């Protein structure tokens, strides 16, 4: 069942990963599940939301910049990044933003 992340009151940070995939899975599905499970164990992780059509968008939420840096440097995550460049992504961008305001239903 889909759900939105239960983030704290701002400020906090969002890492926005947008991508265009190559054809075929090539182990992507299994690695994506592993990366979600691993991210959930990281200090400062607040949640994640993801959608895929022609462009994939994954937004992960973090308490601070240091937590984002630690996640980027995680050994398993570094391996996934390498394979992503080699096999899974035609192109991608990572954007990091500070969330100043949040509201919703």
Describe this structure as you would to a colleague:
The protein is α+β, with helices and mostly antiparallel strands and 105 residues long. It has a single domain (12-99), classed as 2-Layer Sandwich (Alpha-Beta Plaits), CATH 3.30.70. 34% of the residues lie in helices and 34% in strands. The chain contains three helices and four strands; from the N terminus they run E-H-E-E-H-H-E. A four-stranded antiparallel beta sheet has the order 2-3-1-4. A hairpin with a 3-residue loop joins strand 2 and strand 3. Helix 1 runs antiparallel to helix 3. The chain is globular, with a radius of gyration of 14 Å. The two termini are 18 Å apart. The model has no long low-confidence stretch (mean pLDDT 94).
Instruction: Return the CATH topology.
Output: Alpha-Beta Plaits
Write the H/E string, N to C.
Answer: EHEEHHE
Query: How helix-rich are the residues, as a percent range?
Result: 25-40%
How many H/I helices?
3
Mean pLDDT: 94
Number of strands: 4
The Rg value, from CA coordinates, equals: 14 Å
Identify the quaternary structure here.
single chain
**Any idea how many domains?**
1
Main beta-sheet annotation: 4 strands, antiparallel
Low-confidence stretches: none
Taking the alpha carbons of the first and last residues, their distance comes to 18 Å
Beta-strand residue fraction? 25-35%
Q: What is the CATH architecture descriptor?
A: 2-Layer Sandwich
């Amino acid at each position: 069942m889909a759900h939105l992340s239960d983030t704290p009151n701002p400020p906090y940070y969002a890492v926005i990963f947008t991508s265009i995939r190559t054809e075929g899975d090539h182990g992507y599905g299994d690695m994506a599940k592993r990366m979600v499970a691993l991210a959930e164990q990281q200090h400062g992780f607040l949640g994640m939301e993801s959608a895929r059509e022609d462009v994939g968008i994954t937004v992960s939420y973090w308490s601070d910049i240091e937590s984002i840096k630690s996640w980027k440097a995680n050994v398993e995550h570094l391996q996934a990044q390498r394979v992503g460049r080699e096999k899974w992504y035609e192109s991608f961008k990572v954007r990091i933003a500070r969330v100043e305001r949040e509201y919703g239903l």
